[in-house]
Design a protein that fits this description.
It contains 13 helices and nine strands. By secondary structure, the protein is α+β, with helices and mostly antiparallel strands.
Length: 367
């Protein structure tokens, strides 16, 4: 994609804050959904420039503060780990504010790296899961409560369910009527909420440094297809491991994503499930408690269910949060996720066996 001439003066003013006098090219990167991003080339270096969406992340300097704390810890405890932290401007801040344009960050570009947008092989699922697990594992000694909560209640299923109930009672009457069957189906799975509330009260399920957005595009890969590190750390905050594992299950298991209207294409691929479990346990097995190991399968139920109720709540609220690209967009998304939830539950016995088999392999290797 070609450079937008209107961006040139803005980018120049931002780079000056980093004592970078000029650049040769600015290529917009359009894969991200939240932040606006460019690949910036200078005579000697390449950078990634990103505008922070302060409509979602209300305190951009807290994002930089989180990155700094994590960077400091990893430099001291795991110096060989590749952590892509924002560069400091001449002001010693990790964020630059430009009046009328917002907040910006500059990152080094990792030569020989690339991202992918869709998981197409179990190997990719394994590598991504391994990297997200490694990130949390390396930070197991870091006090997660020191991190700023960048999106309050982001994965708080109790709150999301309250919002869902409120929308199905006080939202658009016609849309509520239209959604009656889906509402009933989601309420029939309220045990997923009950389990989450038990997890919150279980001291053996630890509060950890979690990424919270484990889609495949948030992993850097090398030219051989091996994972290098995780990126896009804006949602890194205290949380439970079920958030990261669940998000990988929600986004990696089916070849059809949440936008698919043909629900017959939705399936749970056993080999991708095994790859997620293998990858995560390869780096997190020694960190997870026995209680946590019992919630690996539940992780998928947790994230899929939460997304389904969020989509349906938004539909009943006339698409006030996600917006809609066509009529009934969020209704279709909700039904899509309900189908994925059904497919996961249908395979519960088989998938639990896969988890057990992988845990036995690890024990056998240790012995």
């Amino acid at each position: 994609m070609k450079e937008d001439p209107s961006d040139r003066s803005l980018i120049s003013s931002i780079l000056k804050a980093y004592d970078i006098p000029e650049f040769t090219n600015a290529e917009p990167i359009v894969s991200g959904l939240i932040n606006r991003t460019w690949k910036i080339s200078t005579v000697n270096d390449v950078y990634i420039l990103q505008r922070v969406n302060d409509g979602i992340f209300k305190r951009p300097f807290e994002l930089a503060d989180n990155s700094r704390m994590i960077d400091d810890y990893l430099r001291e405890q795991s110096s060989g780990y590749l952590f892509v932290a924002p560069l400091l401007a001449s002001s010693k801040e990790g964020v630059v504010f430009v009046l009328g344009h917002g907040y910006f960050r500059l990152f080094p570009f990792i030569t020989g790296s690339h991202t992918i947008n869709v998981v197409t092989t179990p190997d990719q699922a394994f590598e991504a899961s391994r990297q997200f697990g490694k990130f949390t594992s390396l930070l197991s000694g870091f006090d997660s409560t020191k991190l700023h909560t960048t999106i309050p209640d982001f994965h708080n299923l109790s709150l999301r369910y309250q919002q869902f109930e409120n929308a199905t009672l006080n939202g658009d009457p016609e849309r509520i009527k239209q959604s009656f069957e889906l509402i009933s189906q989601l309420k029939s799975h309220i045990h997923i909420l009950s389990t989450f509330e038990k997890i919150q009260n279980n001291k053996a399920v630890k509060l950890r440094v979690m990424h919270h957005d484990t889609k495949i595009s948030n992993v850097l890969f090398d030219d051989q297809g091996k994972g290098l590190c995780v990126i896009d750390l804006d949602t890194v905050m205290p949380g439970y491991f079920i958030s990261d594992v669940g998000d990988m299950m929600r986004t990696y298991l089916s070849p059809a994503n949440e936008e698919e209207k043909d629900f017959s294409k939705i399936e749970v691929r056993n080999d991708y499930f095994r790859a997620i479990v293998q990858g995560y346990l390869s780096t997190m097995r020694s960190k997870l408690t026995d209680d946590e190991l019992g919630f690996i399968f539940y992780s998928g139920l947790f994230l899929i269910y939460m997304q389904a109720i969020r989509f349906l709540a938004d539909h009943c609220n006339n698409d006030s949060y996600y917006g809609a690209k066509y009529e009934n967009h969020n209704f279709i998304r909700a039904e899509n996720q309900i189908w994925l939830l059904k497919r996961l539950l249908e395979k519960q016995s088989l998938l639990q066996k896969i988890i057990g088999d992988e845990l036995k392999k690890i024990i056998a290797v240790k012995d």
